[in-house]
Design brief:
This protein is an alpha/beta fold and about 550 residues long. The protein is built from 21 helices and 23 strands. Helices cover about 35% and strands about 15% of the residues. α8 links the parallel β7 and β8. Bound molecules: zinc ion. The site of zinc ion has 7 residues, from α5.
């Protein structure tokens, strides 16, 4: 009987196989999945780009950069981060993994590791070596990221034939987007080197094209004067150049144009000064265009993934603030960089053969001192004073001075061994801290880890905290500051909160498979990766919680 069954199965199966082999390569419903795929997906992340930078400077942008993406592609105008903290490491990771720190584990740029009992950096990895530098700047990998990126899924789907390359001045903005299976991630080592580097996580030595690029040292040509692109009097979309809200460079008294980088470089980190100027973005474009050729991207029907992050916008925002002339200038210049990159993609991959998305890893708040000057509630929170005060409270309440191991990223980490030793109840201690700190100025809300674990929040700030809360890695108490209150110097902007000024970022799609349009429907940062997976008809990243944005497709 068994033999008869298997004989019948064999006949049916071979019939099926015959039927299959006589079919054309497209499936029965006429869809030819491989023809629909772009040759290259390019993810562009602009570090610290607020949504309103698209609109504030719109009239000064050319036709080939941001406007080309907006006017030919799809503009999701109400796109937001859906967790806190809104920082660079978690931001880049969430864009490419379609999930939040709760699942991908990148809870901040640096965080207190409960096991190692020390602060760790999101991309550091002592088990790998630098490539292209004698410094330790290459000892990096995505090992702390727990889930896959859509680039990883594309690699698995294509049997590793589709490539993934990551590029950014900033290591974490290059490494985390490119994922675990990336062929390469490259970032910039400034100081006295001025070279693009990598790590043994990817390769044992730099490819020839990178060595050649570094040898040319075009980085030197950018150590020149930084003045405004157009006459400064036409920069009517930003505040006055001279004000009290900006940092500036060491060695120059005022944060005003022009900046002579050749003179200023010795006091500002050597080649690292370029990170705080638009020229670091130009260098990123130079390197990326070279990578198209050097890495052979988008030349066949197997989709490759290129992740590019423009980081200088973030350094400039931190230094000069959201409303500065310097910010206006870096965006007018970035517009030209985007135009240059799109033109290179047209030339090398072909118009209509690639798909681009552009977004940001977080936005930023206006300088609080500036907001106060125009009567908007804002302020500065002194974290050192906060730590001292809470330690005093713990000592007075429990007679121990070492119950708190770390206060970082608006989280308090308790020494759980010590709490056990003193026979204290962890929940009681967490609650006592909340009742104490909620009385402090500028502390608006506070939650226990227990609440984050035991309750499911579907709306409001609690949802964003929960999405950012990783049970293994996050702290025991999470506190939220008032709107526009930051723990930062009195000059420049920062980010990290759940407020709209930090969560609202651009999201533009453009190119193959994308229709022209716009929406005010709310989209979330975690929707990008599943949208790219859907475009490529591949599996979603392992921790994905986002929804593909079906309305952007042709
Ligand atoms: Zn950032």
């Amino acid at each position: 009987m068994k033999q008869i069954v298997s004989l019948i199965a064999c006949v049916i199966f071979s019939g099926f196989c015959l039927a299959q082999s006589s079919m054309p390569s497209s499936s029965t419903n006429g869809t030819n999945y491989s023809n629909e795929r772009p040759k290259l997906v390019v993810g562009i992340v602009v570090d610290q780009m607020r949504y309103d930078y698209l609109t504030r400077f719109y009239n000064k942008y050319g036709e080939g950069g941001f406007k080309r993406l907006m006017n030919e592609g799809f503009n999701c105008k109400n796109n937001h981060f859906n967790y806190i903290p809104t920082y660079t490491g978690p931001g880049h990771t969430s864009i490419y993994t379609g999930t939040t720190p709760k699942y991908h584990g990148i809870i901040a740029n640096d965080w207190f590791d409960k096991k190692l009992k020390k602060s760790v950096y999101c991309a550091e990895d002592d088990s790998v070596q630098s490539v292209g530098t004698s410094s330790s700047a290459g000892q990096m990998s995505p090992q702390r990221m727990k889930t896959t990126t859509f680039g990883d899924e594309n690699r698995l789907f294509t049997q590793m034939r589709g490539k993934t390359i990551g590029i950014s001045i900033k290591d974490r903005a290059s490494i985390l987007p490119a994922g675990h299976t990336a062929n390469a991630a490259y970032w910039f080592q400034g100081k006295n080197e001025g070279n693009w580097i990598s790590s043994t996580f990817y390769m044992t030595q730099l490819p020839k094209w990178v060595i050649d690029f570094n040898k040319k040292h075009i980085v030197d040509s950018y150590l020149k004067e930084w003045n405004t692109l157009y006459d400064i009097s036409t920069y009517t979309e930003s505040g006055s150049d001279l004000n009290t809200f900006e940092g500036g460079f060491k060695g120059k008294e005022t944060a005003t144009f022009p900046y002579d980088l050749q003179t200023l470089k010795s006091q500002n980190g050597g080649y690292d000064i370029l990170k705080s100027t638009p020229y670091g973005n130009s260098l990123t474009t130079d390197f990326t265009i070279e990578a198209l050729q050097g890495e052979d991207l988008g030349t066949d029907d197997i989709t490759d993934v290129l992740t590019v992050s423009y980081s200088c916008t973030d350094y400039i925002g931190h230094n000069f603030g959201v409303n500065s002339k310097e910010i206006e200038d870096v965006y007018l210049r970035l517009d030209l960089e985007i135009e240059r990159l799109l033109k290179a993609l047209d030339d090398k991959v072909g118009k209509g053969e690639y798909t681009v998305f552009l977004t940001a890893d977080h936005a930023a708040v206006n300088v609080p001192a500036y907001l106060e000057s125009v009567k908007i509630p804002a302020g500065y929170f002194n974290t050192s004073v906060f730590i001292k005060r809470i330690n005093d409270f713990m000592e007075a309440s429990y007679g121990a001075s070492d119950l708190i191991e770390s206060v970082s990223n608006n989280q308090i980490f308790l020494n759980r061994e010590k709490i056990q030793k003193l026979d204290l109840d962890l929940d009681d201690v967490q609650e006592a801290i909340i009742n104490e700190i909620i009385g402090y100025d500028f502390v608006d809300k506070a939650y226990t880890a227990t609440a984050m674990i035991n309750t499911s929040f579907s709306t409001g700030i609690e949802r964003l905290i929960q999405n950012g809360f990783n049970q293994k890695r996050s702290g025991d108490v999470i506190y939220v500051l008032d709107p526009a209150v930051i723990s930062y110097g009195k000059t420049g902007s920062t980010h990290g909160s759940s407020f709209e000024y930090d969560t609202h970022v651009p999201l533009l799609f453009f190119g193959k498979g994308i229709r022209h349009g716009q929406t005010l429907q709310k989209t979330e940062i975690t929707d990008i990766a599943p949208t790219m997976s859907a475009l490529l008809n591949i599996s979603y990243p392992s921790g994905n919680i986002g929804q593909p944005l079906e309305f952007i497709f042709e």
